[in-house]
Fold this protein.
Amino acid sequence: MTNPRVPTFVIAGYLGSGKTTFINALLSGGATNVAVVVNDFGDVNIDASLIRQTHADTIELTNGCICCAIGGSLADTLFTLLDRPTIPSTVIIEASGVADPASVAAYTHISGLSPAGTVVLIDASEFSDNHRNELIRSTLERQVRAAHLLAFTKTDIATDVQRNEVELIVSALAPQTPAVATTAEILAFLVDAQPSPRIDPAPGAHNRFSSRTHHFSRPPSRNELLEFLTALPRSIVRAKGIVELSDGECVLVQQTGHHRALSAIDAAPTGIVLISSE
Ligand SMILES: Nc1nc2c(ncn2[C@@H]2O[C@H](COP(=O)(O)OP(=O)(O)OP(=O)(O)O)[C@@H](O)[C@H]2O)c(=O)[nH]1
Ligand SMILES: [Mg+2]
Ligand SMILES: [Zn+2]
């Protein structure tokens, strides 16, 4: 008897749109036998360590984007999952924040997997600003067009103007694609998912982004860390990492566009991954 095909989802969306947050919420609901494949664009996979804190079966693909630079590693990983003595019942792929989700989903059209849908998260508080940036716009547009489901995040901090702008842009780009705005609605889509139609990747390559990891020569004080983050040039579109402070506390740094969050975390320091648009 052949095994049933494994439903495989792609969770995509621009840098910092909330992909890892959503996947952690999904997994904390007690999902079993789920394999999570996490692509972090930088050379340290911070998201894999954040997800692994709650979910052991997490595979990291690091140091490049799975839609272009390291697609071969994604293909190898998917075949390896299907070779396991007990294959997963669901596969979830977190695409890098710069990826064309359609190119990522194309890797799931293999024997043994059932492409079950691409969810593209849209940060309602940052999208319209980012869309005005020519270095980012085509990346955002291909992400929107590659979605089977669009999900607005950060509606809690978006202004009415930002929400109206993003809704107009997104509905012009993908008028037929259903859009939701809560985690519960995304979960309902995943639960009901059927084999999803293929969406062809947009021609050409997405915008260019580069990354480097900053390590402090000695643990900074909280103020020194904040000064460092405040002084970053505008070309740095995402900063993320785990930093040990001079008082011994480790903090998770999350910075996207206009927002920054520092939170205590019980995990080893990684340095701060800085991603810039080119
Ligand atoms: N206010 C608010 N913050 C959110 C929401 N979703 C995510 N965040 C915050 O946004 C930041 C980025 O979230 P992540 O889940 O790491 O985003 P990501 O898409 O996985 O980021 P990359 O993998 O780096 O592209 C974190 O500080 C989250 O806590 C939301 O709905 N509302
Ligand atoms: Mg992430
Ligand atoms: Zn790519």
Q: What stands out?
A: The domain at 6-192 is CATH 3.40.50.300 (Rossmann fold). The longest strand covers residues 113-123. The chain has nine helices and twelve strands.
